UniProtKB/TrEMBL annotation:
Function: Part of the ABC transporter FtsEX involved in cellular division.
Membrane topology: Multi-pass membrane protein
Name of the protein this chain belongs to: Cell division protein FtsX
PANTHER family hit by this protein: CELL DIVISION PROTEIN FTSX (PTHR47755)
Domain ABC3 transporter permease C-terminal: 184-301
Major subcellular location class: membrane
Family statement drawn from the similarity comment of this UniProt entry: Belongs to the ABC-4 integral membrane protein family. FtsX subfamily.
Highest taxon, organism lineage: Bacteria
Keywords per UniProt: Cell cycle, Cell division, Cell membrane, Membrane, Transmembrane, Transmembrane helix
InterPro entries: ABC3_permease_C, FtsX, FtsX_actino, FtsX_ECD
Gene3D superfamilies (UniProt xref): 3.30.70.3040
C-alpha cells in the first residue's frame, strides 16, 4: 500500500510540474553527456598517446655543404665519414636506444618528393641539399634529452629533433579542449542542480496541505520526503538515459558511420565500443544519485521534517 502511494505521488508530481521536469531532464542529459564525452576524450587522448609515443623517433640531422655555408652550427664543414661512424658507435653504446636507421640525402630527397611533390619548393631542391640523418627509436620516448645532450653541438651535427615535441603540442590542444568541455559540464551540472532543487520545492509547496496532514497523523519524515526524492531521481534517470543515448549515437555516427572518421583517419587509433559501454553505468548511477541527494538536502530544510 505504501509503495503504491509513493508511486502514485511520483506520477502526480511529474505531471504537475511537467515543464520544469522537462527542463531538469534536458539539463541533466546535456551535462552528463558532456561528462561522458570528457571521459571518452581522456580515453581517446591516452589511447593516441600510447599509439603514437610508441612510434616517435629522435632524428639527428647531419651537416651538408649547404649548411656549412649558412648555418653557424655547421661552421666546421659538412659531416665526414669518420664523424658519422663515431656518432653511430656512440648510439650503439647507449642503453636508451632501441634501434637506429640511417637515411641518406638521396632517400631524404625521395621521401620529400613523395610527400610534398606538389609544392613549388620541391622543383628547386636537389638531393645534395637534403640532410643525411639518423632516425633513433628509443626504448622510452621520455628519454629524448639524453640524446639531445649527447649530440647537440657535436661536429657534423646540425640539429637533434624530437618528434614527441610535435605530438605534445597536439595532445596539449586536445587536453585543453577536454578541460573546456569539463568546465561547460560543471556549469551545466550547477544549472541542473538548481533546477532540481527549485522543482522539488515547487512540488512540495503545491502539496503543502497533504504533507501537513501527513505530519499530523504521524507519518515519518522519510515517508513524506520519499515521493519528492523519487520524482527528482526519476527525472534525473530519464536524463541519464538520454545522455547515454547521445554518447552511443555520437560514437556510431562520428566514428563508425556518418562522418566515418575511422575510415577517413586511418592514422588515428580510435577508442572502441567497450570504452563507451563502460561509461554508461557511471552516467546512469550519477543521474540517479545526484538528483536524489539534491532533493533530500533541499527538503530537509524546506519541509522541516
Amino acid at each position: 500500500m505504501r509503495a503504491q502511494f509513493v508511486l502514485s505521488e511520483i506520477g502526480v508530481g511529474l505531471r504537475r510540474n511537467l515543464t520544469m521536469t522537462f527542463a531538469v531532464v534536458v539539463s541533466v542529459a546535456l551535462s552528463l553527456a558532456l561528462f561522458g564525452g570528457s571521459l571518452l576524450m581522456s580515453d581517446q587522448v591516452n589511447t593516441m598517446k600510447g599509439y603514437w609515443y610508441d612510434k616517435v623517433n629522435v632524428s639527428i640531422f647531419l651537416c651538408n655543404k649547404s649548411d656549412a655555408e649558412s648555418d653557424p652550427k655547421c661552421a666546421k664543414g659538412a659531416v665526414t665519414a669518420d664523424q658519422k661512424k663515431q656518432i653511430l658507435a656512440d648510439l650503439d653504446k647507449m642503453t636508451v636506444v632501441e634501434n637506429v636507421s640511417y637515411e641518406s640525402s638521396d632517400q631524404a630527397y625521395k621521401h620529400y618528393k613523395e610527400q610534398f611533390g606538389d609544392s613549388p619548393l620541391a622543383s628547386s631542391l636537389t638531393p645534395d641539399q637534403m640532410q643525411e640523418s639518423y632516425r633513433i627509436k628509443l626504448k622510452d620516448p621520455e628519454k629524448y634529452r639524453v640524446i639531445a645532450t649527447a649530440f647537440n653541438g657535436r661536429d657534423g651535427v646540425q640539429s637533434v629533433q624530437d618528434q614527441k615535441g610535435i605530438l605534445d603540442n597536439l595532445f596539449g590542444l586536445l587536453n585543453g579542449m577536454n578541460w573546456a568541455a569539463r568546465a561547460v559540464m560543471a556549469m551545466m551540472l550547477v544549472v541542473a542542480l538548481m533546477l532540481i532543487v527549485n522543482t522539488v520545492r515547487v512540488s512540495a509547496f503545491s502539496r503543502r496541505r497533504e504533507t501537513g496532514i501527513m505530519r499530523l497523523v504521524g507519518a515519518s519524515g522519510f515517508y513524506i520526503q520519499a515521493p519528492f526524492i523519487m520524482e527528482a531521481a526519476v527525472a534525473g534517470l530519464i536524463g541519464g538515459g538520454v545522455a547515454c543515448g547521445f554518447l552511443l549515437i555520437a560514437r556510431y555516427f562520428i566514428i563508425d558511420h556518418g562522418l566515418a572518421l575511422s575510415e577517413k583517419l586511418n592514422l588515428i587509433n580510435f577508442i572502441g565500443w567497450d570504452a563507451v559501454l563502460t561509461k554508461l553505468p557511471l552516467i546512469l548511477a550519477t543521474s540517479l544519485l545526484m538528483p536524489a541527494l539534491a532533493a533530500f538536502f533541499a527538503l530537509r530544510k524546506y519541509l522541516k521534517v
